[in-house]
Each structure stands twice: as structure tokens, then as C-alpha cells.
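Q: Convert this sequence to C-alpha cells.
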Amino acid sequence: MAEVNATPEVKAVQAKPVQASNPAAVQAKPAQASNPAAVQPGQRPDGKSFQKARQMSSRGPRRGERRLRNDEGLDKKIVSIRRVARTYSGGKRMRLSVLVVAGDKAGRVGVGLGKGDDVRKAEEKAFNRAKKSLVKINLKGVTIPHEITHKKGAAKIFMKPAAPGTGVIAGSALRAVLELVGVKDILTKILGTNNSISNVYAAMEALQKLKPVRKNVTPVS
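A:
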């Protein structure tokens, strides 16, 4: 009679590694450099690169900054934004009208009126027309050479030269024209209508009528 092996067969099972209960036995991850002296060139203390920050800082000016001053050295200001409507056979068509004053603050200034479906399109049209209508104004330093009163339609304005340090004493419409032409000391008064568009065009005509200062003129005895 054959003998029976009563010993059960034991399978070899691979045991999983037991996590060490001692924190010192666990292999530590490389710690981020907290010492500034240990930081490599071109990296921040947290190990990240400055390349992205350099790319962001190398970008050009924002859209609003480009709109304040263009490549031709002209500044611009929006004086009036109105909603206008025109009647067609199918109904009314609503648009926006924008008045823009442009100048280099060195004696040149222009005014343009543009219409468009939104403010941006109307502003671009008005600015292009203002650049085409630039005129040279006769100034005396940072003020006007003499006082003047001009009337255009219902608009009537008075302008008078002022002493240094006075500033631009004018309303919003006249201030936009005078600051962009380069005037820093002046006294003004609006005597007619308060319509900003009419006052801007009246100011433009008044500035063009200013006579230049004559030098080396012998006084009449």
C-alpha cells in the first residue's frame, strides 16, 4: 500500500512591502530650495522658471493704452457720444455718433465726427477725419497771443491769455481742444449755447483766427 503525503502544498506568495512607520525611514522627496543662494540662475525659489514671466512682460501695451496715443504722436479725446436714428422704408436705423478731438500738444489740432454701429467703429472714423483736418495754431508759449471773442451759430466763446500757473480755465468741450493744442494757461467763457459739438467747432475757428506774435517790431512813437 502506497504511502500518502499528508503535507499540504504551500504556494509561495510575494509579500507586499510594509510601509515604514518611522518617517525617517521613508525616502524623502527632494525639498524645494528655500535658500536663495541655492537657487539656480533663471529659476524662482519654488523651482519654476522665469521664462513665462519674461514673455508676459515683453508684450506690447494694452489696447486701451494704444488708443490713447498712436504711432503718429497724436493724442485724442472723445468729447461727445450720441445715439442717432435714420428712418428708412423698413423702419428706423439706430447708430452712434462720436466727436473726437486730436492733437499733438505742440500747436496742431483737429476735430472729426464719425458714425458707426458701435462706439469703436465710430471712434475710428472720427479719429481718421480729425487727423485729416489738423491745422496749425499760432500760440505764444503755452497761452494764446491775444484775447478773442468768436461766434458760430448759437455758440459764442471768449478766450483770454492768462499768467503762467493759471491753468486751463474752461469747460469740458473747450478744455479738450485747448489741452490737445498745447495751451496750459488761459481764461475762457462760454456765452452762447451749451452744446459741446457747437462749442468745439467755434473754438476751432477762434483758434485759427489768432494772429502770430510779431518780433523785433519798432514801437510807433
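The mean pLDDT is 78.
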